[in-house]
Amino acid sequence: MKTTMKQLTIATILGLLFIVGNVNAKGKKVADVSSHEILTENALALENWMVDENFWNINVSIAKFNTTKEAENAMVLEKWMFTDFEKVDSAKDEIEEPLQMEEWMTDENIWIK
After folding, report:
1. Residue 53 backbone phi and psi in degrees, to 5
2. Domain boundaries, the chain
3. pLDDT means per 10 residues in the chain (113 residues)?
4. Which of 24, 35, 56, 111 has its CA 20 to 30 A from that of 9?
5. Helix, strand, or coil here: 73?
6. Per-residue CA distances from 86 to 22, 82, 89, 90, 111 (Å)
7. pTM for this prediction
8. Dihedral (Cα; 7, 10, 13, 17), 10-degree rounding
């Protein structure tokens, strides 16, 4: 219950921050385009560094050396894993004493009405 309330509180605070942040935003402009107009964007220009393999593949040689696979040790069955559980000395059953009424339980001065 606490976790749910905390998550709800955090979500509410973040939501309010986003709303307040958008209210004070400046310089935002929406382009109004009717269905008859065509909105065109500038053509993208490719630059040399964008297609240079040496620029993008800096860590290729390092990655080739780190291709070792880690494996876990094989699991081994030990004797205690498959022996009879009846032989294990389990905790003995405890016998509880019956509940008894005490003076403080019935004292009217202790309990607030």
Report:
1. -65, -35
2. 36-60
3. 84 83 61 65 83 74 60 82 66 83 87 73
4. 24
5. coil
6. 69, 12, 8, 9, 50
7. 0.22
8. -120
